[in-house]
Design goal:
single chain, 248 residues, alpha/beta, Spore Coat Polysaccharide Biosynthesis Protein SpsA, Chain A, eight-stranded mixed sheet, globular, disordered C terminus
Length: 248
């Protein structure tokens, strides 16, 4: 079984579209479940999720958690019944038959990895940044590419580091690269460029690079988060929608 785990915080604008996409693009060859972990949405996201599940007769678990993507994803993992965990952002849309590609890699002996990524934008830099994700370079990795990992390996590592409010995906990915247990599936996941549209491509890209360099030079979780609060945080404080460093 594949457990699809999606952290949610004020995702009313996209969550129904994502659930529809998943139901229409999963192969049907594997057992699967969807676990949505809400961090305290105030925009009606939980009702949209419940209404969708009832209308489609799809088994969707909606659980609540303390806000924080690492905490939300860890709680989802604890609730998961699957031997395979698939962590997905609420504004990223995996390719058709995504479950089959994941299962195939695990059967080959690859216990963790992601998909290549492209943005829903024609901006030349974002297209280039997406193209670079085809390479298995750690600097081109990020959470918007989604993350599959066997539950056994996830528990062995200790899950996501909850001291990180941002960059938690990359901390886990770095650990997997150290263990040489990471593969990039040559299929494309599409993710939203909404934060780039809000903040400006070059402004946001500069700050993402700065965070990447700060972490490389030894900055701790608090320093990274404080930099994010000062330079990136959305006005309405809904979510941090983009943690690909330096690509996104």
């Amino acid at each position: 079984m594949i457990s699809i785990i999606i952290p949610v915080l004020n995702e009313a604008a996209t969550i129904e579209k994502l659930l529809t996409h998943l139901s229409e693009n999963i192969s049907g060859e594997n057992e699967w479940e969807i676990i949505l972990v809400d961090g305290g949405s105030i925009d009606g996201s939980p009702k949209i999720i419940k209404d969708f599940a009832e209308a489609r007769s799809i088994s969707v678990q909606l659980i609540t958690s303390e806000k924080g993507r690492a905490k939300q994803m860890n709680k989802g993992a604890r609730k998961a019944s699957g031997e395979i965990l698939y962590f997905l952002h609420a504004d990223s849309f995996p390719p058709k038959n995504f479950d089959q590609y994941i299962v195939s890699e695990i059967e080959k002996g690859n216990p963790a990895g992601c998909f290549r990524m492209k943005f829903d934008s024609n901006h030349w830099w974002l297209q280039l940044a997406g193209w670079l994700t085809k390479f298995n370079w750690r600097a081109c990795r990020g959470g918007d590419q989604s993350q599959f990992i066997t539950k056994e390996l996830f528990e062995e590592i200790g899950g996501f580091d909850e001291t990180y409010i941002i960059y938690e995906d990359n901390i886990l990915i770095n650990e997997l690269y150290k263990r040489k247990k990471f593969i990039v599936i040559p299929k494309w996941i599409t993710t939203s460029a909404r934060l780039y549209k809000q903040k400006g491509v070059w402004n946001l890209q500069y700050h993402f690079w700065a965070i990447y360099v700060k972490r490389w030079m030894g900055a701790d979780a608090d320093e990274l988060y404080n930099y994010y609060l000062k330079n990136i945080k959305e006005v309405n404080a809904t979510k941090f929608s983009g943690q690909n460093f330096p690509g996104k």
